[in-house]
Write a structure and sequence with these properties.
CATH class of the largest domain: Alpha Beta
Distance between the termini: 30 Å
Structural class: alpha/beta
Strand order of the largest sheet: 4-11-10-9-8-5-6-7
Strand content: 5-15%
Oligomer: single chain
Bound molecules: pyridoxal-5'-phosphate
Length: 504
């Protein structure tokens, strides 16, 4: 192990009943898991093969084969005369796929295993500041001590509520106090709590269509009827909302919107529409539920402040946000900012469902915000995602098979593109062909109340530029396969050699 490396204890036992899986494959998989769990960070040096073999009581050849395999797959990098280290940029392959390259080749098939997913805009877990979070949680556990680990306020850790209030006031122009903040386990819980607090059977909740279906489900589950309102290049079409609301005889309880970057189309709600929506809310007395899921990721110009930032909006607007995009979806922490009466009622509902949140995580996050660590991570991540967005844009616009078939507009922010295809494109067939080539994409109709849309949401953030190049190439090849006119050059349908290499 290198002089700068921290000691790493690795318990590994060869299973005799591993279904005939060779020892070096078992070892390679175990090492991949160590890397994915973060116990071996990018750049960490591994002990030499001799040392590793002795400590694991394995033949050195087994260790060398496993290390070679992982170098070939991109998990490790060989350092001339200095052994191996964990690669700085890790492959996006799930553990279950960590099979030896040679064995896959021998079976002669690499199809049908989705290796890259154009998800709906998930951040790159490889960038998450895991060490920083782990250290903060350890400190929180110690600071809270045994007396702090009992039952506590269902509205969340009082320290975090205070820190969050300050944070959203400073960074997002809200004007709230700690008693306006309710900490949840993510936005989904926030939406469910709001639905259970605000909605009575027979009430109507209006939503954007296309929109965020898991949000719709929360309102439906609470007994609401859903009113679907179309979206155009300026976001929610408020005129249509107004026309439909007139026929509801006061039953419109809330409007659920994603004004910053509309989900899934990415368009910001225009300033005119914002004013129009606020005025309508005041006139008809409905609550605006503002889901601000990716505020940090605005790339061009200054982002518009949230709707909830308007001075007069304390009553009538509810703000929902989470750390799922800022850090990672598995860090279950979100929050609601609302007037104190609503916060108290939602907090009582939370107590019934879940008693309280994860106090250790909440205190750790409070510390990370106070120390500016979360903000530092946001700045770094924003820069990386801006680059990835630009790379994706260039790749899409320069691929002759794609550029004539897709309308490619760069999102001003957020972690996904909304790609609209021309009339000749069959998105479902394209998605199937892409899946056969190892690329997962979800047709945009998944975000619609009914019918079809010739578009899909393409998250770029969790893929490195190299991976994006492969994905776009495979997208081009699969589009060409399903839409013969997609190309202006009669080339082979096969992806490039570079793609084959990176796609495994
Ligand atoms: C519109 C929208 N809201 C909220 C979220 C985040 O949900 P949660 O905080 O429950 O992870 C997402 C995640 O994809 C989203 O797309």
């Amino acid at each position: 192990m290198g002089p700068d490396a921290r000691p790493w204890r690795f318990d590994f036992a060869v299973a005799d009943d591993a279904g005939g899986t060779p020892r070096h494959v078992q070892l390679a998989r175990a090492l991949v898991r160590e890397i994915q769990r973060g116990r071996l960070a990018p750049g960490a040096r591994l002990p030499g093969s001799r040392t590793l073999a002795a400590s694991l009581k394995l033949n050195r050849k087994v260790v060398v084969a496993a290390l070679d395999e992982l170098v070939a797959q991109g998990w490790l990098e060989a350092l001339p005369a200095r052994g191996t280290q964990v690669a700085q940029s890790l492959p996006a392959m799930p553990v279950a796929d960590a099979q030896p390259v040679r064995a896959r080749g021998a079976r002669g098939s690499t199809t049908n295993a989705v290796r890259f997913t154009l998800n709906d805009g998930i951040p790159d877990a490889r960038l998450a500041p895991l060490d920083v979070i782990a250290r903060a949680q350890r400190r929180a556990l110690t600071t809270l001590g045994r007396s702090g680990l009992g039952y506590s306020d269902p509205a969340g850790d009082p320290v975090l509520r205070e820190v969050l209030a300050h944070f959203v006031n400073q960074a997002r122009g809200l004007a709230c106090k700690p008693e306006h903040v309710l900490v949840t386990r993510g936005s989904q819980m926030a939406l469910s709590l709001l639905a259970l607090t605000l909605v009575e059977r027979g009430d109507v909740v209006a939503v954007e269509n296309p929109g965020y279906v898991p949000g719709w489900r929360a309102f439906e589950f609470a007994g609401a009827s859903i009113l679907h309102v179309p979206v155009d290049a300026q976001g929610l079409v408020v005129d249509v909302l107004e026309a439909k609301a007139k026929r509801l005889a006061g039953r419109l309880k809330a409007v659920y919107v994603t004004p910053h970057h509309q989900y899934p189309t990415t368009v910001p709600l225009s300033p005119e529409r914002r004013m129009q929506l606020r005025a309508l809310a005041e006139k008809l007395g409905f609550t605006i539920i503002e889901d601000d899921y990716d505020y940090e990721y605005h790339f061009d110009g200054t982002p518009l402040l949230p709707l909830s930032a308007a001075a007069s909006s304390r009553r009538g607007t509810v703000y929902v946000a989470s750390l799922s995009k800022l850090i990672a979806p598995a860090v279950r922490l979100g929050y609601i900012v609302a007037d104190s009466a609503l916060t108290a009622r939602a907090s009582a509902v939370r107590e019934i469902l879940d008693r309280q949140g994860d106090i250790v995580l909440e205190r750790a996050i409070a510390e990370l915000i106070e120390d500016g660590e979360l903000q530092r991570h946001a700045r770094r991540a924003r820069q990386i995602y801006r680059e990835r967005r630009d790379v994706m844009l260039t790749l899409l616009r320069s691929d002759p098979r794609l550029r004539s078939m897709l309308e490619v507009r760069p999102p001003a922010g957020g972690l996904a593109f909304w790609l609209s295809a021309s009339e000749t494109v069959d998105i479902r067939a394209w998605a199937q062909a892409a899946a056969a080539r190892g690329v997962g994409l979800t047709p945009g109709s998944a975000h619609l109340a009914s019918g079809n849309v010739r578009a899909f949401r393409a998250g770029f953030a969790s893929l490195t530029p190299d991976e994006l190049a492969v994905v776009v190439d495979l997208l081009g090849a699969s589009l060409e396969e399903t839409t013969p006119t997609a190309t202006d050059r009669k080339s082979s349908h096969a992806p490039s050699r570079r793609s084959r290499r990176l796609a495994g």
